[in-house]
Amino acid sequence: MVRQIVGLLVLLNALYGSWAQGWLLPYGFGPAPQNEPQRLAQQIRPEAITLLNPAEVDALRQTWAAASAQCLQSGLMDDTQAAPVRAHLTASWPADSWVLQTVSSPERWLVYMGKYANLADLNKKRAELAAIQVGTEPVASAALAPGLSLGAYASETLANTALQTLSRRGVRTARVVQDQVAVHGVRLRLPAVNAALQAELPALKAVLPSGTLDICAGPETGP
Description:
Layout: H1 2-20, H2 37-42, H3 54-67, E1 70-73, H4 79-92, E2 99-105, E3 108-114, H5 119-131, E4 137-138, E5 147-153, H6 156-168, E6 175-180, E7 183-193, H7 195-198, H8 201-207, E8 214-215
Antiparallel strand pairs: 1-7, 1-8, 2-7, 3-5, 3-6, 4-5
């Protein structure tokens, strides 16, 4: 009887050892695997993983912040309106985070034909002018489009002189219109408003005459 018990214990130990070592897994018996070799097989270039030190992490964070920064600008202000804006920025903002640009653009006058009821009429008139070798350009102003510019000039006098020349070439229905008034003033430009500077915007808007900032319309051209 004792031999049978001992033999049974030896058999059970052998079976347990085989089970624990995973030797019976091909037969559907064994412990759940503690590693996941299939995940290792799914890794893509694990050798490319690089551990960064704190300085490298900080530099990367600054790069991300710069990439997410937004350029904002104000409307035009005169010198009196710009004075409190300048004082606020000098006291509260980093010196390299803002610029007050002097904006000056001259008036512009067009020798103009339009407005036309539709693009078909505009294209018909463009073809008629091309036939007498008069060049045209579409106008950008919403108030004048769809229409044609036969030339842009720095003064009304120059535009009227050009109109007289075109009249002698057979242009009959053109007229002189002002496309742009002379603009002089100061505009605030914030080239890179990051997350940290976003928190300062409400106080800045409070000293702006318009109380608003818009996304920059184009690249910075200098102060």
